[in-house]
Amino acid sequence: MTTIRHSRLGIASAIIAGAVPLCLVLLYTLSIALGTRKGSPGNVIVIIAVLLSLIAPIAHLVGAGLGIGGLFTNRRKLFPVTGTVLNLILGLGGALILVWVARSITYGFR
Predict the structure, then answer these.
(1) 67/103 Cα distance (integer angstroms)
(2) d(Cα 91, Cα 58) in Å, to the nearest integer?
(3) Contacts of 65-73 spanning 24+ positions with Cβ under 8 A
(4) Contacts of 88 (CB under 8 A, 6+ apart)
(5) What are the boundaries of each domain within the chain?
(6) At 24, phi and psi to the nearest 5?
(7) What digits encode the pLDDT tens for the residues 5-21?
(8) How far is CA 69 from CA 45, 54, 57, 62, 98, in A?
(9) What is the pLDDT of residue 106?
């Protein structure tokens, strides 16, 4: 009797869906704990966290693509479905937050 294995693309998609928000929370928590005074290491961590926040929707788009690719294999579909759904929700939410922040910044210059 052969067992059907899980899709590797789906596993990668689910890992991306969980790792990106976890890294963001960890970086922001670490920057708050270290402080953001001038010259403190918290400033560098805040810069890294902001850059990761800008890249996160793209990472979620890649994760969604991996999940969709995993749906078309002859393997189990648990991780591809989970990864695709989470990546699409988190990527769309992150993109909407970035658009909202960008629009609120432009209002300050009027």
Answers:
(1) 31
(2) 7
(3) 66/9, 66/10, 66/12, 66/13, 66/16, 67/9, 67/10, 67/13, 67/14, 69/9, 70/7, 70/8, 70/9, 70/10, 70/11, 70/12, 70/13, 71/7, 71/10, 73/7, 73/9
(4) 60, 64
(5) 8-104
(6) -65, -45
(7) 999 999 999 999 999 99
(8) 34, 24, 18, 10, 27
(9) 66
| Residue 60 in this model has a pLDDT that exceeds 90 | yes
How far is Cα 63 from Cα 58, in angstroms, rounded to an integer? Answer: 9
Q: Which residues contact 72 (CB under 8 A, 6 or more apart)?
A: none
What average pLDDT does the structure give for the chain?
88
Burial class (CB in 10 A: 0-12, 13-18, 19+), 2: exposed
